[in-house]
């Protein structure tokens, strides 16, 4: 799948209910073979009631959370930073299930629409409570200070 096809697939994707996967990945990620590396938690309450909460050693794919294959305005970007999968923290479930504006920012990012004045939403101060903000701000703080 080309980059353009991938962006079109995410733009057409509708996050209705978990498991949250791109249709092209559904068979692989929801098969019986995936049970050891996939989990589907469907709410903030279910997440914090889990025995292994706050997931400190969890390495599974959490398909109850929206995917984050990229972040930012890919059409206007002049620099692309490749990274590993994002970390996992209680704030991820809280943000997606209890903070509608945060969930909307995640969906808009996937669809590459309505990205707002801060298209790299993990640097948007309104999400400073989220681990994604803290991680990216920490990595880019020196550069941000030089540019501002």
Quickly describe the structure.
With 148 residues, the protein is mainly alpha-helical. The chain has helices spanning 3-12, 26-29, 44-48, 90-98, 100-111, 131-147; strands spanning 38-39, 61-62.
What does this structure look like?
The chain has 148 residues and is mostly helical. It has helices at residues 3-12, 26-29, 44-48, 90-98, 100-111, 131-147; strands at residues 38-39, 61-62. The protein has a two-stranded parallel sheet. The model has no long low-confidence stretch (mean pLDDT 90).
How many structural units, i.e. domains?
1
The fraction of residues in strands falls at under 5%
Q: Describe the sheet with the most strands.
A: 2 strands, parallel
Overall shape: globular
Rg: 16 Å
Count of alpha and pi helical runs: 6
How are the strands of the biggest sheet laid out side by side?
Answer: 1-2
The tally of strands reads: 2
SSE-based structural type: mainly alpha
Give the averaged pLDDT, no decimals. Answer: 90
Ends distance = 38 Å
What is the ordering of alpha helices and beta strands?
HHEHEHHH
- Low-pLDDT segments, ≥5 res: none
Helix content: 25-40%
